[in-house]
Amino acid sequence: MTLGVRVRGLFELCRPANAVVSGVLTLIGAYVAGRPFALAALVAAVATVFATAAGNAINDYFDRDIDAINNPERPIPRGAVTSRGALAFSVVLFAGSIVLALSLPLFAIAVAVVNLLALVTYTKVFKGLPGAGNAVVAYLGGSTFLFGAAAVGRPLAAVVLFALAALSTLAREIIKDIEDVAGDREEGLNTLPIAVGERNACLLAAAVLVVAVLASPVPYLRDLFGVAYLAAIVPADLVMAYAAYVAFDDPARAQGILKYGMFLAAAAFVVGRAAA
Questions:
Q1: For all residues of the chain together, what is the average pLDDT?
Q2: CATH number for the domain including 262?
Q3: Most buried one in 17, 58, 145, 259, CB count within 10 A?
Q4: Same domain, yes or no, for 31 and 135?
Q5: What residues make up the domain containing 218?
Q6: Which range has the top average pLDDT, 42-46, 120-124, 246-250?
Q7: What is the distance, to the nearest Å, from the Cα of residue 28 to the centroid of all Cα atoms in its chain?
């Protein structure tokens, strides 16, 4: 195995696009809290990138057997990175994230600790439990906004955004599990679609999205944001509603649509803060 192949494999383990997006979402949390340019916001964003990359790497380490079925092109199954190398790489990334997080306010440190524990234990403890793994990932997805706001000392400013992001992520994770039923069943995992049936799981995902859509006007109704936010959130709601409809026939396509809707929703909060 050449050095170049190994470096590329380690880079892929991080899922860099996913990690960078998580850092950007942390900055959005700080922006919604009104302090996007504070040094603490940048530190939190970098810590989030490191933690997300570490979580992705350790998830690949624990998932190496199931990835051989579901995702054989991933670095460990295809031999680009050894399992031991992936584990060591994740430890280094986690350490970097911890060092950065310790410079932040106490509430932000608390969020970071909970997130790191969730990332480390997700695959071994929660992933195979019906709904539990989905809930953990949903919390982690929403917590990026909360962490950014907490880093600048205003965690309550991002509570609504945290809740909406968590609900959307929960629905997307359930839909993803529907797509992965074959490999998960082969591995012996008891995910939500396996436990309750694919259609029932899809109905639950759709119901969660309905709750998210119905809750999306809350910042406007509570006078946190004005009409600009309301105008911006409507397209996001429509996209997420469409994703719920598509999920019944094409879970893979629904995932992509839902991800787009989630980004639109995050953008709506940026618009709302900018116009406030």
A1: 90
A2: 1.20.120
A3: 145
A4: yes
A5: 157-275
A6: 42-46
A7: 14
